[in-house]
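Final report, results section. Input specification for complex C-07:
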Amino acid sequence: MNAIEFILAGMLAAATPFLLAALGEMVVERAGVLNLGVEGLMALGAVIAFITVYHGGGHILGFLAAGAASALLSLVFAFVALGFRANQVATGLAIGILGQGLSALFGKSYESLTIKGLPKLAVPGLSEIPIVGGLFVQDMVVWLSLAATLAIWATFALTRVGLVLRAVGENPKAAHAIGYPVIAVRVAAIAFGGMMAGFAGAYAAAVYTPLWADGMIAGRGWIAIALVVFGTWLAGRIFLGACLFGAVSLMSLAAQATGLDLPSQLLSSLPYLVTIIVLGIISADRRLLKLNGVASLGEPFER
Amino acid sequence: MTRSLLDLFPSLVRRDRASLTATLIAPPIALAVAILLNLLLSVAIDRDPATVLHAMLLEPFLSWASFSEVLLKTGPLLLIAQGLAIGFRARVFNIGAEGQFVLGAIFASAIPVWFPQATGGWIWPSMLLLGAVGGALWASIAAFWRVRLNANEILVSLMLSLVAIQFLYFLLLGPWKDPNGFNFPQSVLFQYDAMVPTLIPGTRVNVSLLLAFAASLAAWVFMQKSFMGYTLQVGGMAPRAARYAGFSEGRAIWLSLLIGGFAAGLAGAAEVAGPLGQLQRSIPTGYGYAAIIVAYLGALHPLGIIVSSLVMAVIYIGGDNAMVSANLPIAVVRVFQGVLLLSYLIAVSFVRYRLAWPTATRNPT
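Structure output:
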């Protein structure tokens, strides 16, 4: 298996934690709320899923528990940031610290234990194609994440729900004036984002690398937030961005396998460096951000 | 308009003017709530709350040895938080102080690592200066990205922290590893002249604590008395007014990030040239993130931050104590920090708002 085949086969799985968390954060930001606690929400989801699977609860229950726990923590964010109109940046950071703390606390006695991941399902026919065949051999969650990407795209492109979310994010006063419950919509979006971050963490800890280590999320929650900007708040572009980061995180493994003589620390920081560079390139196009950005992002709503 | 479920709850009503009382009592109330929740958590994980309370909040004050450790931790927290608070008031969110701290430690270490034989009184001051410059340089990347490329400084400064830690590991496992260090990821032990002089004999508290207090004074003068500090505050509170007045947003961003990076770098330098005495893998201990909480808890005011940095230092030392005497996992300190900031953010909203209780006479119109 050469490096290209290796990256193609593993890219989607590596991309899934980024994708799930970024899609969730996109919905939150579309509703006009900036939740910077994704890293902590993922860490909490990760530990809850790991513990559930470790004690024989199975992956379905593990994902559900992780989604519920992170959604619950994100509701704490909603309580403080919306209920008390607190600074959303500070509230998000606090949720991040709290989530990582809870994750370390719950995971303490599970350090370096392992569980079983999920089997890969191959698409008959397509998976036989040389070189790109690996793309079509993925576990169930990857397939479901692709479906979620489509569903979220469709929600914003085709449905009334998507329209209401965007109205609430663009101009909450106007949305309120025509009778939409701004706060309720935002709370729902935050809970959805929390659940998705929980799923993302669950995938990272219970499927992608089914081994518990404190701090295993390793900045992926922050990259997911950056991905929302890269994707200019559009599901399709966020998917492409997530694939890019999936490929980048695999490249370090591929580089080591081919015996490329680069310091491992440089390869480990590659995803962060790529984030910084891409963020610079995308943001420099101010028109692009203005066109797709959310007008009232991060501003508290007051009747 | 229909009545919604929200009408059953009290609502926040904007006060005519900000409440000074609320400003002053918000931090202690938040602290009390966080302590209470922390004790509940201790009970939940089957630890004796009285032992935890004693270890966390009393023991740090009970002996001079342990209080001096509190002072030792206060130094870096105070320095970093003062720098960050200036940026936060200008709404420039540098959350990468952790990385700037690490770069400060690395830059400062360059002198003793490259010149281990050098002697003279110039060494430790140059290390502190070099460290501060290193921190400011690291932060300047985020400033450039924000001002020239319009990139969000929160994300860039955080990513830079993650890169900084990898860079530290690279140095310690590669070029800067102590050849006689039994392969441990650490640099050579620094020579005597590379160490900041002790301030209080018999303790590890060194002169950098004085620097932290001097920085607090400087921050106070800068923010409350200087025109430049005034333009930063206006930019944070009323960006449009600042623009009409011709205050440059770019300059505010550069200034905020450079000051924050300079202070964090200085703190990092003081850490290697102080209690550690060498560059180690354990340099990034979360001061950069804790200082964000310290800055907010001190109401982003130089005087408040002096108090809140002491409180945070007590929590750190108390957490260490509780780990030993009550077998409390150290992760509890992070949970505590998160809860503390959340409680504070709730408490501080009463500075600008008051609660209005729903009354029976209030009819939907």
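The first helix of chain A runs from residue 3 to 30. Chain A has one domain: 3-119+142-292. This concludes the modelling results for the funded period.
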